Amino acid sequence: MEIEKHIEQAEKIFINGNFDSKRKKFIKNLKTCDLLAVPGSGKTTTLIAKLYCISQNMPFEDGSGILVLAHTNHAIDEIEKKLKKHCPQLFEYPNFVGTIQSFVNRFLAIPHFTQKNKFKFKVIDDFEYKKRFDFFLKHAKDSISYFSKRDTNIFYKSRFNLDVEGNLIICNEFDNEEIKFNIPQKWINQNTEIEKITKVLDFIKDCKTKLFKEGLLHYDDCYFYSKQYLLSNKDTKKIIQKRFKYVFIDEMQDLEEYQIKIIDDIFFEEDSETIIQRIGDKNQSIYGSGKKVKQTCDWRTRQDKEPLKYKDLNIQNSLRLSPKTAVLVDKFVLERLEKYRVVGKFEESNLYPHLIIINRKTTGEQIKNKFIDLIKKYNLQQCKKNIDNGFKIVSWITEKEDENKEVYLKKLFSEYSKESKSRKEDFDCFKKYLYHYDKEKLTLESIRKSILNGFTRILDLEGIKDNKGKRYRKSTLMQFIKNQGEAFYNDFKSKLFSWCFDIVIRNKYEEVFNEMKDFISSKVFIGQNWSNEENYVPKTINQSKEFIDSEIFQPIEIVKQSATEKEEINIELASVHAVKGQTHCATMYIESAYQRPLYETNKIIKRKGKKTSNPLLLEEHMCEGTYDKQALKMMYVGFSRPTHLLCFVVLKENVEDCLDSLCHSKGGFWEVEEIRNN
Ligand SMILES: Nc1ncnc2c1ncn2[C@@H]1O[C@H](COP(=O)(O)OP(=O)(O)OP(=O)(O)O)[C@@H](O)[C@H]1O
């Protein structure tokens, strides 16, 4: 394979500079290995450049392809956004670029489920799953309801799994290594009779079986099906190995144990020829279920497991962080592996991190104004990096179920919740679907969803139903398109991608709108045999004509926005989770209340006997408890986003004791500013 000769072109396209020798070495490396690197070291950028070089060698002579996986849709969108226009072949058969979940669904769970049960299924998320279980519980016998009130989680968290002998069991901790059904301690303490517990288990099994029969699978159930598939079809592994000669996994730190295991089960075998490269940063593993952040990272590197056979690669210098920001970020490293140090190589900023002191009366507006003042003070709105990267205010906790007196993003900025709540899925004319997607998400995912919602609305208005007589949804629409064959499906996906791209990146709303109108009225859309009718006569647009053509919506809002945007500084609000992997020009991190101790500073500033440790004072952390470690990782991710300016907003009461020593003019490392009440 020729890699080297394409690197120069990749440099021109992706970094407008040169890769140093370490990064070049990784690009050229085609052996199974793991790469661990600090935030902003260019993990994703280097991987993208590598994929570009590899894809210049496609198609491979043996007909195989490459598999590119990541944990989140955000990461996949990012890869697609940067690469698809330069090497569309990478997104076509025999290659596959997607999340681990989509890979597992597509190559293992769906084939197995449909083969076994002869009908299609839908993967559902936690929210819908809980809704279904709520329904079952509402109609359950009193004895079951009694237990459900004592420990609700056990009902929602149950999954089907296989025990070591391959028998179907129920467990409430989805984990491939250890299969358990943990009876809540309080049931045991209260001497609950075993028959009662068995009844609860039977009830759960019953509900899950009902869900299966309806074709509804929880995300995790797909892994169970995949395991079953691999066990019962020995050839499957070999076929998948042959199809994918190279596997690349980005964001490796966020994978769960069972996800890591299934990939290794398939590809990492003695006689497998597949090359697997896994890339990540263990200290950035902030995913868990819901708001929870995993305490430890499940990823054990090849070197961890087989030090004599494998050597992990690592990169310590961050091309995003300035030396000052990097010094601080380095103190938030939870797990300091050998040689792991965050070193800032971005030389265009020399600003100290800013500590913004607030009190319980400080308003969101005051905080935002302070941020804008600082951006203007340092002239960051003129900074060329800002064009791509922008300014963001982030927080760990964005919303709380019960309004309370503590600090979190929505409380400070009501527009944060207003925006997400007012996000509608249905509009009265097609054009609105193109303009009113969720712009908070900087990926193509929300515009994609919005366009698909617009399409299903058209089918609905035309009275077109799916083969079960139901209104088309995004998923059934995509399934229908997939059923029309690989070429048709790929063509549709590629159209969809370029529409999304042209809207989000190029703001070509009207061009895309006109192109889509032609598409909708053509035989490849409305002319399809949507309801699988015999003697089908292709339809034309009829009932939805007005909806599609309607000009009742004039996008004044957007035009107005872009005119004023030039003068005003646009600040986006987001959760720390949502900005993982991003690069900003300036980031303002606001501490927020969650668990106890409440705030990030309460969690990470430690006193043990006479010893104290405060990473904000550049002292080594002493975080040992689950919550402290979670906070440290959230701050590590949040603090490592900006190229130029990092602001950390804290409640005065939380740092009062060390306020003086934090200030850089008094030996500390922060530019300290207080927002006082008028
Ligand atoms: N070789 C390079 N030369 C110059 N700039 C680079 C290079 N690689 C990456 N960058 C820039 O550095 C920033 C961070 O890159 P990237 O997002 O790829 O890092 P990362 O290691 O994946 O980050 P994170 O750990 O936060 O996910 C981006 O602005 C990117 O354009």
Automatic annotation (TrEMBL):
InterPro entries, per database record: DExx_box_DNA_helicase_dom_sf, DNA_helicase_UvrD/REP, P-loop_NTPase, UvrD-like_ATP-bd
Key word DNA-binding present: yes
Descriptive protein name: DNA 3'-5' helicase II
The keyword Hydrolase appears for this protein: yes
Pfam families: UvrD-helicase
Keywords: ATP-binding, DNA-binding, Helicase, Hydrolase, Nucleotide-binding
Lineage: superkingdom: Bacteria
Molecular function, one GO term: helicase activity
Residues in the signal sequence: none
Domain UvrD-like helicase ATP-binding: 16-322
Binding site for ATP: A37, V38, P39, G40, S41, G42, K43, T44
Organism: Mariniflexile gromovii
